[in-house]
Amino acid sequence: MKKLLIILFVAAIGGAIFSACEKDDICPPETLTTPLLKVGFFNFNNQDTPKAVPKLRVFGVNREEDGSYTIVDTLNTFPDRTNRVAVDLPLKTSENVSTFFIINNSRDNEEGNEIGNIDTLQFSYARQERFVSRGCGYGINFFELVTTLNPDYTNDTIQNPGEWITAIFDQETNLEIQDTIHVKIFH
Fold this sequence. Notes:
Blueprint: H1 2-19, E1 37-42, E2 53-63, E3 69-74, E4 82-84, E5 86-89, E6 97-108, E7 114-133, E8 137-150, E9 167-170, E10 183-186
Parallel strand pairs: 1-10
Antiparallel strand pairs: 1-5, 2-3, 2-4, 2-6, 6-7, 7-8, 9-10
């Protein structure tokens, strides 16, 4: 009888110790905390047909108080200077506006300067912080998205004069679903 009581006592202590353990709070890599903006490129003459942008390059930029732009970085959400029918763009989580240089037929000249047909896209949106989980922390929801083609800055080369983007359509103004195109760009 004493052995049975000792075994039950040890089992009760062991059960109490194991039940007090905290599970690991690890954020699985497939968990979407802050969505990316999915931009698709389409043929202007046949608007249901995707159309690749040749040698696409995208720079994230900051607009300064004097109206000038400062390049932040080349995006790493897709292979640089590839032909693409869609790209994922990370929006700024601390501001309500993100600006990008979208370059059609990007290349370097002999001096190493960027050339190609450069258009400036500006995305305005509202943002709301949301709790994802203990492991993943907080994420940002973007909604009320408005896309504009900014004619204030163009750096088109002689070979590619004018804006290459013909029209823009904000298909989905809330970035909740990651597998759908949010903005359609026609060229």
